[in-house]
Amino acid sequence: MIKIMKESKLILVAVLALIGMYSCSDDFIEVENREVLTESSFWQTEDHALQALTATYAALHSSSGSKWAFFEEIYTAMAYKADDMVNNTAETYSRSLASFTNTTEESGPFNIWRSAYAGIGRANQILQQVPNMEALSQESKDVIMGEAKFLRAYYYFWLVTGFENVPLVTTYEVDPDNLFPGQATPAEVWAQIETDLSEAESAMLVAHSGEWIGRATQGAAKALLGKAYLFQEKWSQAEAKLAEVVAMDYALLENYADNFNGSAENGSESVFEIQFTGDRANGNDERQVFNFEVSPYAFGGWELFYPSQWLVDEMRTDVDGIGDPSERVYASIFFDDPGSQMYSRDSDTEVAYGDVAGELNHPKYFKKYSFNEDTNFYNGTNITIIRFADVLLMYAEALNENGKTAEAIVEVNKVRERGGAVPLAGLSQSELRTQIRHHERPVELSMEFGIRWFDLYRWQRGSTATESIQTTLENHGKPFAENFQDKHILYPIPLQEININENLDQNPGW
């Protein structure tokens, strides 16, 4: 359950039972708990509508709400194929994805599929029921439906970039005969994403206040729409839409590290975040586990994955005015450098790399989301989906592709200068394209949720694609890059879904 809607959590279980998880699965045979809520008794009040919206947001955590499924299934499946990290091969989570040896039974992609369709099904029911609710003002209906469309678009963004060939479901079905849809084309899914976001942005609020801070806003819809255009290489439309976000009331945080330590949640740089509370009352467990998973064994963590050597080498070139690594580098990784420090629970302080190098199991670690926390490393710090630095870099990319390289450099330098890196100057369009793709974005956004692998995906998959994922992985020393085949550009359609829905075709090569 997300922080912004914690008032509703006492009856969330009933809401989830009511609205269910729409997936191409056999969940439809579960019997409704009629002692709690029914279809006719639920959709009566504004609180009911907000509880349903809360459930739609909750799928961001995973369809089950499990902090473990969120990290060890969904996050790792989205992250491990990329070139900015290597997994700890002693751990099983998404290990076969990282080595490009997975089968159609891999659990990570299945959890992405299941959670996305859970959120889509919940959004569809809101869009079906809320227009007929007499208890809501038209303004309230518009805002709630706008957020539902935004969330539906975001979940379809997961699906179309991960699987491409997926069912496009825009109504909430209860008839078993309609629960096994076929697949739409990627173009049809992208068109629906664009429609949902275009309609959502005009209905959503510019900002929420009080207990509702953290709900998606007009800026989030604009940013995701700009990103959708970018993924389709609609450069002019991407430039125009992202320019609208740049003109809004967002600003880079003064301290880069505050994006990850919980001190600036839903702040000036936040465009959209997954909300966590850390609440453990009444049987809840509303925490995330990044802190534990990225911290070294020597510091009490599990060190599930590490920055790749290519990323560390690239970060060493991101320097300040005197040639030392920039502030954003020191805030992102813990590595063999005199200025590198990381928090240790044993000493309850930041320790220098050189002082503990002999105790470490690995020569380099990620530092984002790893900080002082007093509850066994699990905490309620939010996880960013889109932040303003990402918007500026996407905007710069669109400007550069539209031949406005000098303007693009200005936007990139905003991000560099905040992170303590010297500004760029004098790059050609081609040079800046490479700089954005293989320095600025990975250095600024390394290991952040759902970013690097899908950048690599879009740069190969676009209509004017200029580079091969396999070549990039090989050039950047990705372990097991020799195993990569074209089929690994996409996840396989989960075997569990293929087995129960004869209308689904497997992705090529699987």
TrEMBL record:
Domain named SusD-like N-terminal is located at 70-230
Q: Which domain of life is it from?
A: Bacteria
Give the keywords, sorted.
Cell outer membrane, Membrane, Signal
- Give the location in the cell: Cell outer membrane
Check the record and name the InterPro entries matching this protein.
SusD-like_N, SusD_RagB_dom, TPR-like_helical_dom_sf
Which CDD domains does the entry mention? SusD
Write down the Pfam families for this protein, in alphabetical order. SusD-like_3, SusD_RagB
Question: Start and end of every RagB/SusD domain?
Answer: 269-510
Q: Which family does it belong to?
A: Belongs to the SusD family.
Q: What is this protein called?
A: RagB/SusD family nutrient uptake outer membrane protein
Q: Name the source organism.
A: Flagellimonas algicola
